Amino acid sequence: MAVLEDLVLRNPDLHDAIELAITACMAGKGFAYQPSPWASELLGDQRFGITDELAAAENGYAIPVADRVLAEGSMQSRPALEREAFFGRGDRATIDEWKGGNSSVDVGGCLEEGADAVLGSFVAWASVYDRVRWLADESARSRDADPRAIAVLAEWVECMENAGYQTTSPVYDPPIDGGVEAAVTDASCHASSGLTEVWTAVEVEVQWDLLADHADALAGLIAETTIPLTP
Questions:
Q1: Which of 34-38, 45-49, 138-142 shows the lowest mean pLDDT across its residues?
Q2: Residue 206: inside a domain
Q3: Measuring CA to CA, how many Å separate 103 from each of 108, 110, 123?
Q4: What are the counts of helices (DSSP H) followed by strands (DSSP E) for the chain?
C-alpha cells in the first residue's frame, strides 16, 4: 500500500473505535448495527489491477459481493427510522475542499456521533480526509508520468498483447470481457513485469514529498494514525 492509503485506510485501531462507538449509539436507539470492514481490506489488493492469480482463477475480475458490502452502503436500503438513526435528519455541513470547491456530508445521527466520540470532530476529520484523497489523486497523476512507471506499464501491455489481449492499463482499461482467463493472464503479467512493485515504489516517493509539503494541513490526521510517518 502507498503511504496516503495507509494513512487514511489502514488504521484498524481508529476504525474499530469509531465502529464500536457507532454500534453503541445505534443500540441505544434500539437498532442492531453491523460494523463495516476496513476499506483497505476491500481496495488494497486491486489498487493497481488484479494481482492474485488464485483469486483471478476463482472470481475473474469481480470482487466477491460478500467482501464488498460496507455497512454504511447497505444502510441506504434500511427502513427510514434506522437510516435516520444512522445518518441523522438529513442536515448537511459544507466542507471547503482543497481546490476551492464544496463537499457536503451528512451530519447528525450515530455516524457523526461515533466519529465525534473518537475524533472530536467528524466534519474536521472529513475535511482532512478529502485533502488526503485529493493528494492521492495527485500522486497517481505523478506516478503515471514517471518514466519508471511508463516503462513497466509497457512491459505489462506487451505481456497482455502476447496473450491476445489489447489493453492500455490494468487500472483504467482491464480486459474484463475476457473473463477468468483474462484475469489470470493479467495477474500473471503483473508478476512477470513487476508492475505493482514499481508503481508502489514510485507512488511512495511522491507521497512522502506530498506529506512533507502539506504536513500542517494533515497534522490532525497524522496524529491519529497508527503507522510511522518516516521514509
A1: 34-38
A2: yes
A3: 16, 20, 11
A4: 13, 2
